[in-house]
Amino acid sequence: MGGSAPGQSPYQRLSQRMLDITGDRGVLKDVIREGAGELVTQDASVLVKYSGYLEHMDKPFDSNCFRKTPRLMKLGEDITLWGMELGLLSMRRGELARFLFKPTYAYGTLGCPPLIPPNTTVLFEIELLDFLDSAESDTFCALSAEQQDQFPLQKVLKVAATEREFGNYLFRQNRFYDAKVRYKRALLLLHRRSAPPEEQHLVKAAKLLVLLNLSFTYLKLERPAMALRYGEQALIIDQKNAKALFRCGQACLLMTEYQKARDFLVQAQKEQPFNHDINNELKKLASYYRDYVDKEKEMCHRMFASGDDGSTGEN
């Protein structure tokens, strides 16, 4: 078992080979799997999986690993353990690490009854899946259009991309209304930024992605007219974009505008002949249209039948 002193607890033994990241041995770290890229920034929103353990206990007293999609948490707001915040600031995307937090950096002298006894050192295993730096984006969006114009285009594109990433994350959590708000913020930034001719293609490419996101989000919000509007704006930028044609077709189908739906979907199929989603939507359209025609026939038949009934009378 190595050369550890007799009578040492498991956490004391573990702490001997851990890195001191606070300088007072209050937060100790052991990297299990290295991450990559930049360190987590102050004020970032993080996507993490974590489990907290007490010494001599196999099961965690706190964990979010059972969640299918962990929620995004903002440093300084959603994360209340000081040790966890300091630990996260030492991590990179994809990193998995084990931390020991002394009471000062965890639950203090009082603990958190009945789960956490007073003056308890706790162990946390944390996996950093991703993080988004919202501080830069929030600060930039609060500026006036004139102030934003003082910054280079690359800054605007970066902030718009961050807003879109936030939207994508919220969309994956089925928070479609919140996702729409983020996408609209990104679109507003790109709309009000004028770019020199040689850089306009960069703005158009960024706009196209956001417009496609908005079209899909409005379909999820069951607002097909808005979905069609943003899909058509995307087609102004790229008239052969299969995704935009598909979204417009879906929107028209929901609005029972069958001929328009067919026109969009046939064009989408022309661009991507083997796309299952497009082909399935065309089958759905054919089925809906058959039902619609059958109902129209039935209605006409009833009208004429009732007319016949009315005309049968005395001769």
Automatic annotation (TrEMBL):
Pfam families: FKBP_C. The keyword Repeat applies. Keywords: Isomerase, Repeat, Rotamase, TPR repeat. GO terms for molecular function: isomerase activity. Residues 43-132 form the PPIase FKBP-type domain. It is an enzyme of class 5 (isomerase). Its EC number is 5.2.1.8. It catalyses: [protein]-peptidylproline (omega=180) = [protein]-peptidylproline (omega=0). Belongs to the FKBP6 family. This is peptidylprolyl isomerase.
